[in-house]
Design brief:
The protein has 280 residues and is mainly β. It has 2 domains: 20-61, no CATH class; 74-277, TolB, C-terminal domain (Neuraminidase, 6 Propeller). It contains 1 helix and 19 strands. It has a 4-stranded antiparallel β-sheet, with no helix packed on it. Strands 5-6-7-8 form a 4-stranded antiparallel β-sheet, with no helix packed on it. β11 and β12 (196-198) form a beta hairpin.
């Protein structure tokens, strides 16, 4: 365009076609660039998918040890989204068997009202309450805290080796299982303070319990028993034994809402230390 030409009459640029055949007149030559920028992008999708998988792999494979002020036997940790706080409990120590952290990196030891072997801890968003249970101690094998810092011991009706606690928001109910007792290795509470012992169909050593909101079901696993190391309950009160394909030493169970799947893991066994269930 020369100096005498009217700029207002310059051609209006045309939009790039939404779709076209490769090599069309409106395609930009990017041979000198890395990657592929044409409209046909299946390889780009694969690239993004690959990068995503690699990113997730980097996140889960790169672990960093963190410093704790006290070398305790820390056995359970949980997270409170509402308080932005991790809480961990220990089975060893004197007067300070809890530690808290806002970021998983910086930890602060906390005083505890009883030197029990605190084995499991969970958080109830609805009650704004942490509940921890112990498997041994002089008394008061439950303690609660609204903030992870100040703890209060609670007195369950029976002293059992309480090993796992979970919370059901739908039932507003805590459920705890034990590996000791005769016909009563479970207890429940609507508030973490008032506890009721419940009946269990077998005196297996129940080690872990979890809740499935989608199935409205508690599932507990045991590390003893003969072909019956799972029990389930719709309400935490009435429990039913379930057959298991192996008598492995099951120690933990969790639920995946996305997969509609329970997964349990074992501390012993030969090529059978995991079992799964889609439903009961």
């Amino acid at each position: 365009m020369t100096e005498t030409e009217d700029y207002s009459k310059a051609a209006t640029p045309t939009l790039h076609a939404a779709s076209h055949a490769d090599g069309g007149s409106d395609e930009i030559n990017v041979d000198s660039l890395s990657g592929q920028l044409s409209d046909s992008q299946p390889s780009n999708i694969s690239l993004v998918s690959g990068l995503s998988a690699r990113f997730q792999s980097l996140i889960t494979s790169n672990w960093t040890t963190r410093i704790t002020s006290h070398d305790r036997l820390w056995l359970s940790v949980c997270w409170s989204p509402e308080l932005s706080l991790f809480v961990a409990v220990s089975v060893s120590g004197i007067g300070n068997l809890v530690m808290t952290s806002p970021n998983g990196i910086d930890w602060t030891i906390r005083a505890t009202p009883a030197n029990n072997s605190w084995y499991s801890v969970c958080w109830s968003p609805e009650l704004s309450l942490f509940v921890a249970v112990a498997y041994t101690g002089p008394s008061d094998l439950v303690m609660t805290s609204p903030n992870g810092i100040v703890w209060t011991v609670r007195s369950p009706p029976d002293e059992r080796s309480w090993l796992s606690v979970c919370w059901s928001p739908e039932l507003t109910l805590f459920v705890v299982v034990a590996n000791s007792g005769t016909g009563d290795r479970v207890m429940t509470s609507p508030n973490g303070i008032d506890w009721t012992t419940g009946s269990t169909p077998a005196d297996n050593e129940w080690f872990s319990v979890c809740w499935s909101p989608e199935l409205s079901l508690f599932v507990a696993v045991a590390h003893t028993g003969s072909g019956n190391r799972v029990m389930t309950s719709p309400n935490g009160i009435n429990w039913t034994l379930r057959p298991t394909p192996t008598d492995s030493d099951f120690r933990s169970v969790c639920w995946s809402p996305e997969l509609s799947l329970f997964v349990a893991v074992s501390a012993a066994g030969t090529d059978d230390r995991v079992m799964t269930s889609l439903h009961f």
